[in-house]
TrEMBL record:
This is PTS sugar transporter subunit IIB. Keywords: Sugar transport, Transferase, Transport. It is an enzyme of class 2 (transferase). Residues 1-89 form the PTS EIIB type-2 domain. Its EC number is 2.7.1.-. It comes from Bacillus daqingensis. The keyword ATP-binding does not apply. InterPro entries: PTS_EIIB-like_sf, PTS_EIIB_2, PTS_EIIB_2/3. The lineage of its organism: Bacteria, Bacillati, Bacillota, Bacilli, Bacillales. GO terms for molecular function: transferase activity.
């Protein structure tokens, strides 16, 4: 499974989101390649799940990846809920 954590520059909130997602995935024993990337890169990389903010989520919808907006990048509960929604789709 390929997960992209997306923010404007690829090294701010996306890194925080990446760390949160990796922790949640490890706790769930789900193997995934998680990357922190900028918005431009996210548009050209194939992924299964994209976690990002509300603004970018609306712009990344419509592709093959499941896109989920995250409000609190450090919230394990919110990220876990998004991952569960993806896994159960």
């Amino acid at each position: 499974m390929k997960v992209l954590c997306v923010c404007g520059m690829g090294f701010g909130s996306s890194l925080m989101l990446k760390m949160t997602a990796e922790k949640v995935l490890k706790n769930k024993d789900v193997k995934a390649d998680v990357e922190a990337v900028d918005f431009g890169t996210a548009q050209s990389v194939t992924a299964d799940l994209i976690l990002t903010n509300n603004e970018f989520a609306s712009q990344l919808q419509g592709g093959q990846a499941f896109v989920k907006a995250i409000v609190n990048m450090a919230s394990e509960q919110e990220v876990e809920s998004a991952i569960e929604e993806f896994l159960n789709k």
